[in-house]
Amino acid sequence: MNLNSPKDSPLERYMSALEMLAPHPAGLTSQELELALGLPKTTVNRLIHLLMDAGLIISSSQRGRAYQLGPRILNLLHGAADGRWIEQLTRAPLQQLAERTGQSAFISRLRNGQIRSVSCAAPDTMVRLYIAPETVLPANATATGKAILANISSDEADALLSIDLEIFTPRTKTDADALRAELAQVREQGYAVEEEEHVPGLASMACPIRTSDQTTLYTVGLTGARDLVMGKNKEKHVVAMMEAASHLAQLLRLPAP
């Protein structure tokens, strides 16, 4: 007969360790885990080694001798999470980006072969542009699409470009080779732009938010009237957007680019 209760099983200890690490993006040391879990040093060290071997935790990139959630558990978390969780987590920094730039700020992600918006924040202005959650964003005609295409594997990008590319405006690009050439520039500068390629009169810019294993799942972007997004304040917008990407990466427990 098994005398161990479910709460004292090895699996329960592994789950408890992961739950303790989850709220701490910078990680916890083994001593902190011992205190939090109420387990002896030898048991905690064994837990750490087994979780690291499985890729569920890794050495912290922010604290010495500390451990944080690893790529396997993060991929499970972000792959299964719906937009409401991400929207709640990112609401404040998105709103700060919108107010700082005067443009609508939004997060999108690649999931199941589609690029969709997740959350959006609009500035406190008379005219506001809002992207509804779950809006499909075409890979060939949006800055978000280009930012993702430029940062995923060539096979994944080719799959997204192999479908019939829709024309939205006279400026929409539908030639796959021309798009691939543009993606090289996106990779070099770290962000993508589009001007009236999706919606007449509007422009957008976007940059990737990378996961810990360097897979691009998320982007953060700005959109608004073309002259306001791409005009004299363009470089300031780029700086603000990329700083927001770094902050968002930390919130999502992902290392910044």
What's the gist of this structure?
With 257 residues, this protein is of the alpha+beta class. The protein is built from ten helices and eight strands.
Structure description:
With 257 residues, the chain is α+β, with helices and mostly antiparallel strands. It folds into two domains: 6-69, Winged helix-like DNA-binding domain superfamily/Winged helix DNA-binding domain (Arc Repressor Mutant, subunit A, Orthogonal Bundle); 79-251, Beta-Lactamase, CATH 3.30.450.40. Helices cover 44% and strands 19% of the residues. The protein contains ten helices and eight strands. The protein has helices at 10-21, 30-37, 41-53, 71-80, 83-101, 143-149, 154-161, 176-189, 226-230, 234-251, and strands at 28-29, 57-59, 66-69, 104-111, 114-121, 192-195, 202-210, 216-225. Strands 5-4-8-7-6 form a five-stranded antiparallel sheet, sandwiched between helices. Strands 1-3-2 form a three-stranded antiparallel sheet. Helix 2 (30-37) crosses helix 3 (41-53) and helix 5 (83-101) runs antiparallel to helix 10 (234-251). It is elongated and about 65 Å long. The model is unreliable at 1-6 (pLDDT under 50). This is IclR family transcriptional regulator. InterPro entries: GAF-like_dom_sf, HTH_MarR-typ, HTH_MetabolicPath_Reg, Tscrpt_reg_IclR_C, Tscrpt_reg_IclR_N, WH-like_DNA-bd_sf, WH_DNA-bd_sf. Residues 8-71 form the HTH iclR-type domain.
